[in-house]
Amino acid sequence: MVTAREVAQLCGVSVATVSRVFNRPATVSAPTRERVERVARELDFSPNESARALSRQRSAMIGLVWDTDHRRPGWRHPFLQDLLLGLKSALSSHGYHLLLLATSDDARNRTAGVSLADPIAYVGMTRRHHLAGLVLIDSGSDAEAFTAFAQSGLPCVALDVAVAGPKATYVTSDNAAGASEAVRHLAALGHERIATLTGPRGNAPATARTEGYLRGMADAGLPVRDDYVVSGDFYRGSGFVGMRRLLARKHPPTAVFAASDEMAIGALLAARAAGLRVPADLAIVGFDDIEVAALVDPALTTVAQDKAEFGTAAAGALLGMIENAAAPEPVLLPTQLIVRDSCGTPHRQASAAAPRL
User: Fold this and answer.
1) Which of 25, 168, 218, 329 could form a disulfide with 156 if both were Cys (CB 3.0 to 4.6 A apart)?
2) 9 lies in which domain range?
């Protein structure tokens, strides 16, 4: 492997000059810089990344803090996978790479000192690795750790969880507005008995989507029934179980807003298993616009989040802080209602046969 010393000897300059060409090119005269760069290309030389990290006190690595414990299903959610692809693409275009800092609370990882249960130690580890910044993904129980990261001064951007600090901000969609629009759409079709399948308690997007459901019902002048609000966890199984509970009511809903497409698909399967037709007997709206939403039968009406813009906005905020900009205001991205085939008017549902549960 070609070394910086060999490039320096061939160019007739010092090793320090070669280092400045690749780390602080503005401090080197144009003729010298061009000569070093030409020789480096000819020899296929690239500066050692770890040495560059030491000289700059940071690397081109962005740490992704994410609890990937197999007992938690978050890493399997299709929306999150799409979001991460967008984030990776945006960072890569600026020469940065994502390094997964997987965490867990099991005994083995606690012994290794990488558990979010000890956030101060974890902050120290990120500094020892000279990471340029962090992307934080909440697993539902990381509030203390994220507060420590945000207050550490290391550039941090969180996805869908509010953080604040000297170099910390977050990106989220306007979940409440999207949910409210979905409910108003159902009301405009003539539905009055509108239920919701919520996301997990304590999850910020889930809370906002429930608030949006309540706001949409109020905007439409419709009463909210406690037994029409059923908790879920964003995944298909809870959508199926929750929909069965709703269909077992004496007066089942004619429409349901699910806080995720996965739960909406579960609700669709439960309705079909009960002998109901969607949308003739039950209207369903989801949230996220994952790829499969357009492929199920009937195609799912849903509230779309801009996955590409989510990643771009997160990367832009993080890169700005890395370059010593102040922490920007939190980014609130708009949503869009995508109308497909899973919604219809309730006129046929009044005479529909009782579901078979």
Assistant:
1) 168
2) 4-47
Domain match, 210 and 118 both? no
pTM over 0.85: no
Instruction: Indicate whether 141 belongs to any domain.
Output: yes
**Which pLDDT tens digit goes with each residue over 251-267?**
999 999 999 999 999 99
Same domain for 16 and 117, yes or no, is: no
Q: Where are the alpha helices (DSSP H) in the chain?
A: 4-11, 15-23, 30-43, 49-56, 78-92, 107-112, 119-128, 143-151, 175-188, 204-219, 236-247, 261-273, 307-322
Is the same domain home to 190 and 259?
Answer: yes
Q: Is 181 found in the same domain as 291?
A: yes
Strand-pair partners of 258: 197
Return the exposure string of 155-179: e unless at least 16 CB atoms fall within 10 Å of the residue's CB, then b: bbbbbbbebebebbbbbbbbbbbbb
Alpha helices in 202-282 (DSSP H): 204-219, 236-247, 261-273
Higher pLDDT, 295 or 124: 295
